[in-house]
């Protein structure tokens, strides 16, 4: 391959060596083996030596590791790729799949379908069906529409209508690729094109009971799908709904394009699945549907177990359920489909009875005969019940069924010989009976569907839909894989011829001179597998010998002439009984272990005789007796149609007619059916849908390149690409080619643009478009002929050899396309250099101009910013001065106001306390004055009473105090009654001393507290003054908090001082009060004594001697006391009374003693006064207490207001409870 530096290529991801970096990771790749790169160096032959990947790593490559890469993205048709190779195909598919486009064309009539593994919105709805309805109507081969399976069906339909020739839609792919769903969608769309839309609308008006009578042909064809899926599909390890048979549906169309009939052909039903399903797989869906959907009455009638685990047939593989699948609902769908295709209720009951019989047959197990010496086998535990249930459902005798599965009858010239079977042979006989019953039941269903649909013998054209298994290669491959791969080889040969014919037809249509295109033909493989004395003939020959073993078969195959002469056949390396065939998709190893048993397809004579005589009508219909009789319904295949598992086979005639034996094998039947299918397809125009499974994990929109590439090879897509490359792989219309390579001719693009503008809106086929096409052709010829030897390096582009021009397209061979690509790369490089030079010059000029303009702008911006900053600074300075002045003034005013408020509060508190103290003192003084006035007013009355008591007049003359004192006795006779006096005549000072001592003790106790208070008060005042002096500098919250704390402390100390002062002043006031009261009592006592002395001196001459004043006073007190003690006293008037009183007083004084009388009289005379004063004093204390409480509350309020309105922030201060007033005791007595 000739390349040059700068060419876009693909390189393998594991080259010989890497330079310039490690292996790239995370680069966009088309597959796991290819990376996009650009050639960096080439050798002397033009082959790539090194390439640089997109991440910058440089790879040393060899020519075989390099493929040309095109830059086209979103290509809908792989034929349109400039370089059709494996990495380009994978890259195109992966890009479309990642964007949600699951369909891609590979030329006309071939569509690749990648399974998305999830529903795609709007892909198959009514709008999509209508959008593709007219596709292919005008005979175009795709046009601008996106590829779709509806487009393939529409092309086939309109081509059938236009040409009157039959069409075929071939859907192939491996299990899980989506063949079944694609076939259903194609059938649905063909029914839509054929008029099913109106028929379906008409069928909605009736009831469901007469579905079979009113259902249209289209509806019956569609309803047959769920029925065939239930009986022919199963879960495999790759697919949950895998078709285990091939299906070819012929849709018959009348002259008007409507579906008039149909016929279904089936191929190679996988009968071995019925008795030997693989682990992790399931048996056919119908068994699980029957066990899940049967009613209790039906379950009892058919003797079914509770679920799928109750029978060996459904539980042997270990998988009984599918996620997200309701088998009971699907059973109802299957019944509806049976009604739709015309199967009556009684026939349905018989079908389900046969299925239940197969379930019970699978439960039969065998053990050696328990009796010694007996040969054969017996039913194991529980087998009798299963045998009876199976026999009853089949309509045969239980003993006859037991004999049929445990013995074998051999025909000899002397007569039949019955031989017992060993347990293993009996199990094989049981399985053979089950397989033949199910195979014939499946053929019967296909026949009934064909009868219900109806074959139109007067049909005009047909469209065939083939849904067949894809190429299979497993770890263990048996006869099924051999037949499947034979069918795929046959279809691949048909596909290769079709692609070659497409190429030939396109060349002829365009008027291109072409020669034979060489392609790989697989005729030798087909000759090896199905030719005369090929593998199938040798297998049939080995099956004719009952004692043949797998090793015998392998030896026969290896010794055969045809296999030995074929290069496609070889021995397997790991097994002596296996062989290998080199298919078009790759080598496959086949094992011969079970080929002999699976290829034999005859019914055991005992089974045929037993089932032909069954009581159940359906059983007799499946196994008709060979003796002449009334016509009975035979399975599909016996009447000439295709069938799934082989013919009836066995002995012809009665069981005793041994000469009529005819051997029929599965391989020979399939070979004949495949030949019929090939003959039909050769008469039809094929359209291919290659279904691809993008990954083995069934993950949505995830493409595994290796996995996909293998399927592309198996599906023949890569062979189609190779065939296209063998001719003229690069095909472009004139306009597309000129648009793609206009860089090779100066001025060509301008001409194309002007022609497009001129032809815009012109009618198709008009003169304007024809003239534009002629001009495009002339420009194209001038371009290609002008290139000549311009490709350089010894490569010349010559007309006819390297390129040709057709009627509407230009065709180039692979080498010419590569040379043209190199020229295009050079032209693009030169144009890029010119563009880069112009662009870089313009960019440099723009950059210089931009830099100059940016510099000017930056300078202007910088100067403006500097001027604005200076102006802003000056404005801010002026504003700051104004703000500072205002703030300082406001702060000073706030501080002054707070100081004034605090001083006012403190002054008010102090003045209030002083006023309250003064008021309290004045109240006490007023009380004393009132008491003095009361005593003064009471003294004359007392004197008058005393005079009356002693008999004197009521009005005594006043005597001077000196005379009264002189009149008093001097002998001291009344000393006992008088108060205690000192030697000098003065009262003793002991009470006064005690009072003074108490006052001094109280003062000494209060003085330290007062001194401490003064010291703390001075300290608090000093702190407040310091904060006040520094108030201008207090800006922080901490100093403000400190000031508030000092104020609170000052308030607390002031409160403590106020308490101390109150206590001290109260104590001092009480002391003063006691002194005043004592002085008042002494003065009053002296006045009373003087008054009594005067009265006694005045009455001493004429009357009996008067008692001394003290005696008289105490006598009065004694009389008062005597009255209180004795009740009512005597009242004596006149002198006698006075004398008696004096005597009584004298006697009393003498009896009690002067001191006792003095103390008793003193207490008695002062008791009333004391009680009266005490009550008044308590009332005053209560009033003072209330006043102090009110003053304290007001003081606290003022302090709070001062703290709130001060220069600092608001501070919450907790004040103690108001101090309780200092209790004031009773007045002291001296």
TrEMBL record:
Database matches in InterPro entries: IQ_motif_EF-hand-BS (IPR000048), Kinesin_motor_dom_sf (IPR036961), Myosin_head_motor_dom-like (IPR001609), P-loop_NTPase (IPR027417)
Region (Actin-binding): 674-696
Region (Disordered): 626-645, 953-991, 1209-1230
SMART domains found in the cross-reference section: IQ, MYSc
Membrane-spanning segments: none
CDD domains hit by this protein: IQCD
A GO cellular component annotation in the UniProt record: myosin complex
Name the UniProt record assigns to this protein: Myosin motor domain-containing protein
Organism for this UniProt entry: Raphidocelis subcapitata
């Amino acid at each position: 391959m000739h390349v040059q530096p700068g060419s876009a290529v693909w390189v393998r991801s594991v080259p010989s060596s890497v330079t310039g970096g490690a292996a790239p990771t995370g680069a966009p790749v088309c597959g796991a083996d290819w990376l996009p790169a650009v050639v960096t160096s080439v050798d002397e032959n033009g082959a790539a030596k090194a390439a640089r990947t997109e991440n910058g790593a440089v790879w040393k490559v060899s020519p075989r590791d390099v493929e040309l890469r095109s830059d086209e993205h979103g290509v809908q048709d792989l034929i349109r790729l400039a370089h059709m190779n494996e990495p380009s195909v994978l890259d195109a598919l992966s890009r479309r799949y990642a964007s949600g486009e699951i369909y891609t064309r590979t030329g006309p009539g071939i569509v690749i379908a990648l399974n998305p593994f999830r529903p795609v919105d709007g892909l198959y709805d009514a709008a999509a069906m209508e959008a593709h309805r007219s596709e292919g109507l005008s005979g175009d081969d795709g046009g601008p529409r996106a590829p779709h399976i509806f487009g393939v069906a529409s092309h086939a339909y309109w081509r059938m209508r236009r040409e009157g020739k039959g069409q075929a839609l071939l859907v192939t792919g491996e299990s899980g690729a989506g063949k079944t769903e694609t076939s259903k969608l194609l059938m649905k769309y063909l029914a839509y094109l054929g008029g099913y839309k109106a028929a379906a609308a008409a069928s909605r008006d009736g009831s469901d009971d007469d579905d079979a009578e009113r259902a249209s042909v289209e509806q019956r064809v569609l309803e047959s799908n769920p029925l065939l899926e239930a009986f022919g599909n199963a879960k495999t390890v790759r697919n949950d709904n895998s078709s285990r048979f091939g299906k070819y549906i012929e849709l018959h169309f009348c002259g008007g394009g409507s579906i008039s009939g149909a016929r279904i052909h089936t191929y190679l039903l996988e009968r071995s699945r019925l008795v030997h399903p693989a682990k992790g797989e399931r048996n056919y869906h119908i068994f699980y549907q029957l066990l899940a959907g049967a009613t209790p009455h039906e379950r009892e009638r058919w003797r079914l177990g509770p679920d799928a685990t109750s029978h060996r047939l459904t539980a042997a593989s270990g998988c009984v359920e599918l996620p997200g699948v309701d088998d009971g609902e699907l059973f109802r769908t299957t019944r509806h489909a049976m009604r739709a295709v015309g199967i009556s209720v009684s026939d349905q009951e018989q079908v389900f009875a046969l299925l239940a019989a197969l379930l019970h047959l699978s439960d039969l197990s065998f053990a050696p005969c328990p009796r010694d010496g007996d040969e054969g086998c017996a039913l194991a535990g529980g087998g009798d019940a299963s045998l009876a249930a199976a026999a009853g459902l089949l309509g045969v005798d239980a003993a006859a069924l037991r004999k049929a599965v445990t013995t074998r009858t051999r025909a000899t010239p002397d007569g039949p010989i019955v031989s017992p079977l060993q347990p293993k042979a009996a199990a094989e006989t049981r399985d053979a009976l089950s397989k033949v019953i199910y195979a014939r039941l499946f053929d019967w269903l296909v026949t009934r569907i064909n009868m219900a649909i109806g074959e139109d013998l007067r049909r005009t054209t047909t469209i065939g839909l083939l849904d067949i298994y894809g190429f299979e290669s497993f770890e263990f491959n048996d006869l099924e894989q051999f037949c499947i791969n034979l069918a795929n080889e046959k279809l691949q040969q048909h596909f290769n011829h079709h692609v070659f014919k497409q190429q030939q037809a396109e060349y002829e249509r365009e008027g291109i001179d072409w020669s034979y295109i060489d392609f790989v033909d697989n005729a030798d493989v087909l000759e090896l597998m199905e030719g005369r004395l090929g593998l199938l003939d040798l297998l049939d020959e080995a099956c004719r010998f009952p004692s043949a073993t797998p090793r015998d078969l392998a030896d026969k195959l290896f010794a055969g002439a045809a296999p030995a002469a074929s290069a496609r056949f070889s021995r397997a390396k790991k097994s002596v009984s296996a062989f290998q065939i080199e298919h078009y998709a790759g080598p496959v190893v086949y094992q011969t272990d079970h080929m002999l048993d699976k290829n034999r397809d005859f019914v055991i004579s005992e089974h045929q005789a037993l089932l032909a005589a069954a009581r159940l009508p359906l059983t007799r219909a499946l196994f008709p007796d060979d003796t002449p009789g009334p016509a009975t319904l035979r399975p599909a295949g016996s009447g000439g149609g295709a069938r799934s598992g082989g013919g009836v086979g066995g002995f012809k005639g009665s069981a005793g007619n041994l000469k009529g034996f005819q051997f029929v094998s599965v391989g020979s039947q399939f070979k004949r059916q495949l030949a019929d299918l090939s003959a039909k397809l050769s008469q039809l125009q094929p359209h291919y849908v290659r279904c691809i499974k993008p990954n083995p994990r069934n993950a949505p929109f995830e493409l595994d390149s290796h996995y996909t590439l293998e399927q592309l090879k198996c599906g023949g897509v890569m062979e189609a690409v190779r065939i296209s490359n063998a001719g003229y792989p690069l095909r472009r219309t004139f306009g597309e080619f000129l648009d793609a390579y206009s860089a090779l001719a100066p001025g060509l693009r301008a001409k194309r643009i002007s022609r497009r503008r001129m032809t815009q809106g012109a009618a198709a086929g008009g003169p304007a478009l024809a003239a534009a096409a002629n001009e495009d052709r002339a420009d194209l010829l001038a371009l290609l002929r002008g290139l000549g030897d311009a490709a350089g390096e010894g490569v010349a582009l010559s007309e006819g050899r390297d390129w040709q021009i057709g009627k509407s397209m230009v065709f180039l061979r692979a080498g010419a396309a590569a040379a043209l690509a190199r020229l295009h790369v050079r032209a693009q490089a030169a144009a890029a250099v010119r563009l880069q030079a112009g662009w870089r010059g313009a960019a440099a000029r723009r950059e210089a101009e931009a830099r100059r303009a940016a510099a000017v702008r930056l300078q202007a911006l910088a100067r403006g910013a500097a001027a604005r900053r200076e102006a802003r600074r000056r404005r801010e300075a002026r504003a700051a001065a104004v703000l500072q002045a205002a703030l300082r003034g406001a702060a000073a005013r706030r501080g002054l106001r707070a100081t004034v408020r605090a001083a006012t509060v403190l002054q008010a508190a102090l003045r209030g306390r002083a006023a309250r103290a003064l008021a309290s003192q004045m109240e006490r003084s007023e009380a004393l004055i009132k008491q003095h006035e009361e005593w003064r007013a009471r003294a004359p009355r007392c004197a008058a009473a005393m005079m009356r008591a002693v008999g004197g007049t009521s009005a005594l003359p006043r005597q001077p105090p000196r005379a009264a004192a002189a009149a008093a006795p001097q002998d001291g006779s009344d000393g006992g009654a008088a108060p205690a006096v000192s030697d000098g005549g003065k009262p003793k000072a002991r009470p006064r001393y005690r009072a003074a001592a108490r006052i001094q003790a109280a003062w000494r106790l209060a003085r330290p507290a007062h001194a401490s208070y003064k010291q703390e008060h001075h300290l608090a005042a000093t702190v407040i003054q310091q904060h006040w002096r520094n108030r201008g500098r207090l800006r922080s919250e901490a100093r403000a908090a400190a000031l508030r704390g000092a104020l609170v402390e000052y308030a607390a100390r002031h409160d403590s001082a106020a308490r101390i002062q109150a206590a001290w002043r109260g104590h001092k006031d009480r002391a003063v009060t006691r002194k005043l009261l004592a002085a008042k009592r002494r003065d009053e006592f002296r006045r009373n004594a003087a008054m009594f002395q005067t009265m006694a001196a005045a009455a001493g001459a004429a009357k009996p001697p008067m008692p001394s004043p003290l005696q008289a006073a105490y006598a009065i007190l004694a009389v008062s006391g005597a009255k209180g003690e004795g009740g009512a006293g005597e009242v004596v008037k006149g002198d006698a009374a006075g004398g008696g009183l004096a005597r009584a007083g004298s006697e009393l004084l003498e009896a009690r003693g002067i001191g006792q009388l003095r103390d008793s009289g003193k207490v008695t005379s002062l008791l009333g006064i004391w009680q009266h004063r005490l009550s008044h004093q308590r009332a005053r204390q209560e009033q003072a207490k209330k006043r102090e409480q009110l003053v304290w509350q007001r003081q606290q309020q003022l302090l709070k207001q001062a703290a709130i309105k001060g220069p600092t922030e608001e501070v919450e201060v907790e004040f103690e409870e108001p101090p309780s007033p200092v209790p004031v005791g009773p007045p002291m007595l001296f």
